[in-house]
Specification:
Shape: elongated
Largest sheet: 6 strands, antiparallel
Strand content: 25-35%
Distance between the termini: 76 Å
Radius of gyration: 23 Å
Number of helices: 5
Number of strands: 6
Structural class: alpha+beta
CATH superfamily of the largest domain: PAS domain
Order of helices and strands: HHEEHEHHEEE
Helix content: 40-55%
CATH class of the largest domain: Alpha Beta
CATH architecture of the largest domain: 2-Layer Sandwich
Length: 154
């Protein structure tokens, strides 16, 4: 086993001042990221009607939505199993939605876009434009799709 001299051991050590500077820079970056996240959330609230995420690994759909909140449904809706969350889509739109989603998943496209009707708490339907992007693993296999939706008139 090699023995190291004191100089060899301390050459790579940071001084207390250097550590404090690095800590302050890290805090600054964290605050910037938190501020950016707050701004992003405000923009989402104002520009879009909601945020959605389809986790393909857990087969879980999450919807955070002004649309649902305005229709008296809990603001964050988490649904297990594809069959359950697809029930929110108008019956006449389900097949086309399913085909568009499957086509997206089989492709190497980066974005997904589909206009369809979503069910309200009153069992009525509202047209929405869903746009999103896929997160894929290193092999290109889709793991989740996330995006926003906006209420549109048709």
């Amino acid at each position: 086993m090699k023995k190291y001299t004191k100089d060899e051991l301390t050459d790579d050590l940071l001084t207390k001042e250097e550590l404090q500077i690095r800590y302050q820079k890290a805090l600054m970056h964290l605050r910037d990221a938190q501020d950016l996240n707050r701004k992003y959330q405000l923009i989402l609230e104002e520009v879009n009607d909601g945020y959605w995420e389809l986790n393909l690994i857990k087969d879980e759909f999450t919807l955070r939505s002004k649309y649902y909140r305005s229709h008296g449904i809990i603001p964050t809706l988490k649904i297990q199993r594809k069959e359950r969350w697809q029930e929110l889509i108008h019956p006449k739109d389900r097949e086309n939605f399913h085909q568009a989603l499957e086509s997206f998943l089989r492709s190497d496209k980066k974005t997904f876009k589909f206009t369809h009707r979503l069910k309200t708490r009153d069992d009525e339907y509202q047209w929405v434009l869903a746009t999103g992007f896929g997160l894929r693993d290193e092999m290109g296999t889709p793991k989740r799709i996330m995006g926003t939706h906006m209420t549109v008139s048709k």
